[in-house]
Amino acid sequence: MKTEALPLEALEQAITLAHENLTGLIHHAAHGSQYVSIKYNKTLSDHKIRSSTGSMGDSYDNALAETVNGLYKTELVYSQRWASLTEVEFATINWVHWCNTTRLHASLSYRTPEEVITDYNHTHASQLAPV
C-alpha cells in the first residue's frame, strides 16, 4: 500500500473533520512503510500530532489496532462480494459508525466507545469547571 493512497487520505480526512486543535494527540500505528514515510509523518508533525509507532517485533504495541482490523475484515470485508471500491468505502463508514455508537465492547464493560468518551468528557469538564 502506498502512503498517498488510503493511509494519507484517511489521516487528512480525520484531521479535517476534527475541527479542533490536535496538539498533543497521539497517533498509534504499526511499522508499515506507509506509516513511517516522510510525507505521513510530516502531516502528523504539521498538526502537532505525536507519532507512536510500536517497537519492532512487539505485537502488544499494536494489539488493539490489529483486533479492530481483524473484526472489520471478518465482519464486513470478507463477509460478502463487493461490486466496487466505492461500495466498500461506504460500507466501511457505516461499520465504523455502528462499531463506535451501537456495538457493545466487552473491554469497555459492555458499553460503546461513544458512551465511554461522553462519560470521560463529562468527568473532565466537571473537574475543569471554574470554582
Summarize the structure.
With 131 residues, the chain is mainly α. 52% of the residues lie in helices and 6% in strands.
What is the 3D form? globular
* SS strand fraction: 5-15%
Secondary-structure class? mainly alpha
- Largest sheet data: 2 strands, parallel
Contiguous helical run count? 5
Low-confidence stretches: none
Please estimate the helix content.
40-55%
The CA-CA distance between the termini, in Å, is 52 Å
SSE inventory with pairings:
Blueprint: H1 6-18, E1 26-29, H2 38-46, E2 50-53, H3 63-75, H4 85-101, H5 113-128
Description:
The structure is a single chain. This protein is mainly alpha-helical and 131 residues long. Helices cover 52% and strands 6% of the residues. The protein contains five helices and two strands, in the order αβαβααα. The protein has helices at 6-18, 38-46, 63-75, 85-101, 113-128, and strands at 26-29, 50-53.
List key phrases describing it:
single chain; 131 residues; mainly alpha; two-stranded parallel ribbon
